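Review form for a predicted model. The reviewer records the input and the model, then writes brief findings.
Reviewer: anonymous (R2)
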Amino acid sequence: MSFSSDVKEELSRQYGHARHCQIAELAAIFSTCGSVMLSAQDEFSMRISTENVGVAQKAYKLCKIAFEITPEITIRPFVKFGRNKVYILLIRNAKSAERILKAFRILKADGALAENLMVDDLVVQQTCCKRAYIRGTFLTCGSFSDPTKHYHCEIVCQSEEKAVQIRDMINSFEGIDAKIVPRKNSFVVYLKEGTQIVELLNVMEGHKALMELENVRILKEMRNHVNRQVNCEAANLNKTAVTAAKQIKDIELIRDTVGLSSLPENLEELAYVRLEYPEAPLKDLGQYLASPIGKSGVNHRLKKISEIADGLRNARGGKEE
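Model under review:
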């Protein structure tokens, strides 16, 4: 199973303890994958349709525990692809449907339905209800990418109004800054930072998935840290090798033109040591001298040798044999 599927399986087993939280989560599920039918007698009925068995089971249970209503369930093949099943929950009784729709505040006092089946903000005033509503919305139209590859979470909404509502609800929690981007005929609420996705999992009470993601993040950060160290050390070694090659080239130029004996005694001694130990770091070179000196002293003397070599090059018009 994918990480996204694992998260949804965990969330499908998570229920709010209070009735108002249960109503908020069921409202989210209905708002995203539900529909309302009106009979010839102007009576309402409700339908929830989903391919996710966990969503169907949760919606069924929430109807029973929050409203003491038992929906009818039918299972049909998904004709478009012929592989998945579609789980359909029906509430045919008009009074039951009206009671639920009024609890969602989708059915107004004048008998009109809210546009796009938008759930009223009054249903999600409390923080616990926001958590439940976000969880229900993610269950029906959310997804995570594989965190071992990259961090990405998105919730696909069919209207901009719903996208704005769920984005603002998510952003009401500290440490999260969800964004919206249009995509074809929908609007996508998304997060792309690992820390924010961890916070969202905490909001939805997906604690097992949160720990799994944190473990992945720790391993990735450790791996990145090691890679940075290796790259840094490799760069330093390369820089040291290039510098040493230039120093040896300078010394060989002096040797082959005016001779190393022309150098002051302290520079001549260091020149011979550098030729004998071409790969040694400056700190070690200083220890090979008759009177050991530190790294800065070695660096100072090598700069003097470089200046002498540059002077010889300039005198010869910049040419070297």
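Findings: The chain has two domains: 3-205, 221-315.
Further findings: The mean pLDDT is 91.
Recommendation: see findings above.
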